[in-house]
Amino acid sequence: ITAKGKPQISTMRVIYQPQQGVTIVQWQFEQSIGWLPWEKLGSIMNDKILGPMMEKNLDQLRRLIEAETSSL
User: Fold this and answer.
1) Alpha helix locations (H) across 9-71?
2) Per-residue pLDDT tens for 11-45?
3) Would you list the domain boundaries of the chain?
């Protein structure tokens, strides 16, 4: 919850598709914004800041899992 009491939700889903032998990890960040221009600008800034960080962390998770499964 932000300082103004608006919720911010981070959700992670693991989707297993056995037919393709694929597991998908989906990570999303939801932010409640109002109609005010600076709230919309703030959400764009959050996307530019959090997006690359989340992609980097997902890539690190992928590499860790691949390393663990290759050692089995």
Assistant:
1) 37-70
2) 999 999 999 988 999 989 888 888 889 888 988 88
3) 8-70
